[in-house]
Specification:
mainly beta; Beta-galactosidase, Chain A, domain 5; globular; disordered N terminus; disordered C terminus
Length: 357
Amino acid sequence: MLKLLIVLAFVTALAAAASAAPEPTTQPAEPHAQIAALAKDPANKLKAFTPKVTFRTGRGNRHVPMVYGSSPWGAKSSFPVEVPECIHGRHDGDRRKGFLFWGRPLNVLKDRGVRYPSLEKPQWKRITGGLSLDNPLADGLTVHFRVIGHDRMMEIRFGITNNSDKTIRNSWAQICAKSDLEPVLAEKHPTSSHMLSGGELISWDSAGQDLAWLDDELTADGKGYKRSCFFIAQVGTGKIQGRRTQQPLLTLGRKVDVPAIAKADKAKRRAVIVYSPSATRAFYNVLQPCFHADPYLADIKPGTTEWARTYLIYFEGDLAAYMKKLSAVHKKIVAAKKSPAKGKASPPAKADKAKKG
């Protein structure tokens, strides 16, 4: 009996050591503390709430890297987030633009007859406060995701380790947040989502662009849409040409101040805000509906790992005032990135402590 206990203790110690393996590199460069403080800012009237992050393994979830964040507005509500919907990028010298990886197997995604790699079964692991996923890709690449619940927000870390002999450029992940399982935010029309432009809270009808064409896309019962209808708002300053293509895709005729989009209720008092410091646009699709501010990585040199973050902030209060606060924080982050000597480096990441599922 004593020998058996000793063996069990030894095995347990080995498992603990393996679960405490360090991250591939340090944390993403974005100053997480500033966003965490903003989520708890007095302007956010939502009471303290840490979303529980889970995944499901039943039919319909088996081939989709979907995680679920609990909702503060209903015990049976949740926010599904596809992590990732897909990952874009290319090697040095490879002129083809395309996907490094697609989150779920889709036969329609082909490049000259070659199907893009995808997860056949997401291998999510439980870590302190959330979930982790590490998935090998082709050509010596490994993608990393961490989804962690914090007070009034979810943090999603996205990273790629490059063990090839070529630099990986233009890499970004589509992190697809959906609101169809939260009745408070279930409205599908694009005017239920909001951005900040010129210090003003706007939506997709704020640049004089007609949205009447969407009526032809409605389902017979008028409760949903027959296909994806995409809406994109570019971040930056200056003028932009608003246009609509036959996909259908509408590009907003105004640039936005901050790479963030808020999915709100009719009164604009409750919302989930998706924000990525490294994103270049806000994105909306009426079909689910889903909303994005997709994270971009710096160039990934051989033998290195790069990270970026996306946040889902749960909010109640004056949305326009809060988005202005977010814009002010974002400007500081951008300024610090341009002058790294003045900013403080992020501390090393703590080891993920895996839990038994």
